[in-house]
Amino acid sequence: MADGHVVALSGGVGGAKLALGLSRILPPDRLTIVANTGDDFTHLGLTICPDLDTVMYTLADLSNKEAGWGLAGESWNFLDALSALGGEDWFRLGDRDLATHITRTRWLAEGRSLSTVTGDLCRRLGVAHPIVPMSDDPVPTIVELKDGGDLAFQHYFVRDQCEPVVAGFRFEGIERAAPAAGFADALARSDLDCVVICPSNPFVSVDPVLKLPGVQAALDGSDAPVVAVSPIVGGQALKGPAAKMMDELGMPRDPVSVARHYAGRIDGLVIDEADLDSADLVREAGPAATVTQTVMVTLADREQLARDTLAFAASLRA
Ligand code: FO1
Predict the structure, then answer these.
(1) Extended strands (E) in the chain
(2) Closest CA to 58 of 129, 134, 159, 136
(3) Taking burial as the number of CB atoms within 10 A of a residue's CB, which of 88, 158, 174, 259 is the most buried?
(4) Interval 90-120: pLDDT, tens
(5) C-alpha distances in Å from residue 54, one per residue of 33, 35, 63, 72, 97
(6) What's the chain's Rg over C-alpha atoms?
(7) How many Å lie between the centroid of ligand 1 and the Cα of residue 267?
(8) How far apart are the CA of 50 and the centre of ligand 1, in A?
(9) What is the residue with the minimal CA distance to atom 23 of ligand 1?
């Protein structure tokens, strides 16, 4: 494995799993984890950053491993009391998790950037690896529905349980947003080894990051390979609505669709053994392809996929 710097783009639960695997095999000075902030929203007056929190809690080993989000050992007294008052309880905020949202909201109100707030939270939670938001500017994902309506991301994802039929997505304010300094600086490093796109939802977790002004140009201008891990395995998304979205967008539920979606933006795609038969079709769609186990059940699986992904990137750089 080369000794340069790795940038990992992560969103959602699947992304955090591989981010953890990478953090277990790379020291803090060789890894920058960039989290999607398109899922962020203001709820009950609090600034909620789900993908930042999921990856931060996961690296701090504090996360609720069953749900993939929120904290382990959570209690729900606040939510029960809120519900009794008729408050919005569809977005489940645990008592311990609430401390993170209240602290982030207060620090942002004091004028700290989201990057600074994230760094301060990580320090307090004992996370050594740098986690940065994709941008310090808000870029909320709007889900455009087939019936013509729009939904804020969390209303689509949690309140409406991903049931509405999607027609597309937009990222509000992205034209005016800038990559966070920690993200842009990592891409500009002369020792950048590779960029890993974790197995996150391509449409709502990865596209917001890649479509930020300047990001694609930085990737195109670098000889560091961009390697994505397919979030679709055997026709299914292991977590979340990626496969349902592909159905609704008219794409087959397979890694070839992922390769086509990322066409021109990735050098390699890591696919699961269940999709071995798709490897040549992926290659015809553009990127190099490697086949390995991408389903991460154990910690060892997370570490092994991280090693396999970095080895694949190294083979592309050679
Ligand atoms: N996801 C849910 O499906 N239901 C919830 O009630 C929920 C609450 C929640 C609270 C804090 C947080 O950081 C994440 C939370 N998530 C919940 C996950 C969130 O919707 C993320 O956007 C998804 O993980 C997709 O990235």
Answers:
(1) 5-10, 31-35, 41-43, 46-48, 131-133, 141-145, 150-152, 166-171, 192-197, 226-229, 232-233, 236-237, 268-272, 288-292
(2) 129
(3) 259
(4) 999 999 999 999 999 999 999 999 999 999 9
(5) 12, 9, 7, 12, 11
(6) 19
(7) 31
(8) 6
(9) 12
Query: Are 199 and 231 within 8 A, CB to CB?
Result: yes
Residue 142 to residue 204: CA distance in whole angstroms: 9
Containing 121, the helix (H) or strand (E) segment is helix 114-125
Residue with tokens 């989201």: 114
Q: How many CB atoms lie within 10 A of CB 295?
A: 14
Which residue from 144, 138, 161, 17 is spatially nearest to 91, judged by alpha carbons?
Answer: 161
Residue nearest to atom 13 of ligand 1 (CA): 50
Check pocket membership of 154 for ligand 1, CB cut-off 6 A: yes
CB 92 less than 6 A from any atom of ligand 1? yes
Tell me the pLDDT tens digit for each residue of 59-99: 999 999 999 899 999 999 999 999 999 999 999 999 999 99
Domain at 5-317, CATH homologous superfamily: CofD-like domains (3.40.50.10680)
Per the listing, tokens 């039929």 go with 165
pTM, to two decimals: 0.97
The pair of three-digit structure tokens given for residue 44, joined into one six-digit string = 């009950």
Q: Using the mean position of ligand 1's atoms as its centre, give its distance from the Cα of residue 80 in Å.
A: 17
Rounded Cα distance, 151 and 162, in Å: 10
